[in-house]
Amino acid sequence: MDIYKFAISSLLFNVIKTDPEWLHQQTIRSFSWLSQRNISPPASWVNHRLQKSLCLYDSRLEKNLFGLNFPNPVGLAAGFDKDGVAASIWSNLGFGFAELGTVTFHAQPGNPRPRLFRLPLDKAALNRMGFNNSGAAVMAARLEQEKHELIRSIPIGINLGKSKVTPLEAAAQDYLDSFRLLKNLGDYFVVNVSSPNTPGLRSLQDASMLSAILDLLQQENTTHKPIFVKIAPDLEWEAIADIISLAKTYKLAGIIATNTTIRRDGLKTQVIDQTGKSPQDEAGGISGEPLRDRSTEVIRFIWQQTQGQIPIIGVGGIFSPEDAWEKITAGASLIQVYTGWIYEGPMMVRRILAGLLSKLEQSGLNSINEAVGLQTKIQKF
Predict the structure, then answer these.
(1) How far is 116 from 234, CA to CA, in rounded Å?
(2) Can you list the positions of beta strands (E) in the chain?
(3) In whole angstroms, what is the distance from residue 176 CA to residue 160 CA?
(4) What's the rounded Cα separation, in Å, for the pair 53 and 58?
(5) Is the dihedral of CA 186, 192, 197, 201 positive or negative?
(6) What are the backbone angles phi and psi of residue 222, rounded to the nearest 5°?
(7) Percentages helix, strand, coil for the chain, rounded to the nearest 5?
(8) What gap in Å lies between CA 153 and CA 295, rounded to an integer?
(9) Whether the predicted pLDDT of 165 surpasses 70
(10) Residue 88 · residue 50 · CB < 8 Å
(11) How far is residue 247 from each of residues 200, 205, 281, 333, measured CA to CA in Å?
(12) pLDDT at residue 14 in the model
């Protein structure tokens, strides 16, 4: 039995009703301690036990994209490890890759608390964190030290955001400043212009604004690091088509679909305990199950528009092997989890991987690569 899923999460979320941001901070502190495995025998032992319990290795799940080897297609989405304090241990929790950040050039505290809320009835979260992080220079120093101590077993991405103090017209330079500090320390990079929690940020998804950012980054990108753009689920199809065009023009590695949604329709939650208000009256983005279908629609649209030529990282509402399979067969080469992992617990990644192997066998496929876009191809013909 999965003790976390059936007992611990229910106790924390429904009985004690632990503050989600406090719980997140304690979790990150624990993971930071586990990162000290080279100097702490107990941490080394715990890491070994985690690896044995949570990891599943099978060559059919391996992916090779843009020169990077992914042991499996399930990654940790940005937002959990904002400062990269646990970069070295995500592989021990079963992930095939992990994305750090969102990090901004200037350190910033984020928005006022409370700013993170669970919506258990919807298997969702509402957040308006506002890119709280210690800044690109601090992350760079930490990753530089780690680079000399450890050999990475999974690709590590870095998600870049705009500093709140930076005017929109200076956004491109702000992203560039962060990239310059971190470009030799991440395996791939993400331009995050789709969080709803930094004023005006989503306007940077406009083709002219986004092209200015991508142009500067690719000029600086002399070592050809893979660069993605992360988009909002709330964009119209025409706007997504414009971003696809920019991705081709600037030779981006791919698109991450999608960030959180500002839509509130269909939610079961009537009142948020911490504030006494409804989700409709609270600012922020919704992640988790309410996002699942829309993010899959966006993935399918991108895959169809590009004939599968632009890799997609699918994220939004993944809780089960079925959810993961749906994203992959819609067109996602890789997938990411966050809210689902919070609700389902650390065994979720292994369950998803085992489920994907079963799906491959049922479909008569030899590798996860053959499943990418499979459902979209079938619908097309």
Answers:
(1) 20
(2) 63-65, 68-70, 74-76, 97-103, 116-119, 124-127, 156-160, 188-192, 227-231, 254-257, 285-288, 312-315, 334-337
(3) 9
(4) 15
(5) positive
(6) -70, -20
(7) 45, 15, 40
(8) 29
(9) yes
(10) no
(11) 22, 12, 35, 16
(12) 55
Identify the residue whose tokens are 């066998």. Answer: 361
pLDDT in tens, 53-108: 999 999 999 999 999 999 999 999 999 999 999 999 999 999 999 999 999 999 99
pLDDT-derived band at 6 (thresholds 50, 70, 90) equals low
pLDDT of residue 324: 98
Q: Is 53 one of the annotated active-site residues of the chain?
A: no
> Most distant CA pair in the chain: distance in Å?
57
Tokens encoding 348? 């979720």
For 45-61, b/e burial (b = at least 16 CB within 10 A) is ebbeebeeebbbeeebb
| Residue that is written with structure tokens 């106790």 in the block | 11
pLDDT per position as a tens digit, 121-151: 999 999 999 999 999 999 999 999 988 766 7
* Contact call for residues 101 and 160 (beta carbons, < 8 A): yes
Q: Which residues fall within 8 angstroms of residue 213, CB to CB, at 6 or more apart?
A: 171, 172, 175, 176, 191, 193, 204
> HSE of 136 in the Cβ direction (CA atoms, 13 Å)?
23
Which runs of E-coded beta strand occur in 50-202?
63-65, 68-70, 74-76, 97-103, 116-119, 124-127, 156-160, 188-192
Q: Pairing state of beta strands 334-337 and 74-76?
A: parallel
**Location of structure tokens 């617990």:** 345
Q: What is the DSSP string of 3-55?
A: HIIIIIHHIIIIIS---HHHHHHHHHHHHHHHTTTTT-HHHHHHHHHHHHHH-
Q: Annotated catalytic residue: which of 195, 287, 295, 333?
A: 195
Indicate the SS3 state at residue 170: helix
Q: How confident is the model at residue 7 (pLDDT cuts 50, 70, 90)?
A: very low
Tokens, residue 8: 């611990």
- Return the C-alpha torsion angle 251, 256, 258, 260, nearest 10: -110
- Phi, psi (degrees; rounded to nearest 5) at 87: -55, -30
Instruction: Let me know: does 180 contact 225? Beta carbons within 8 Å.
Output: no
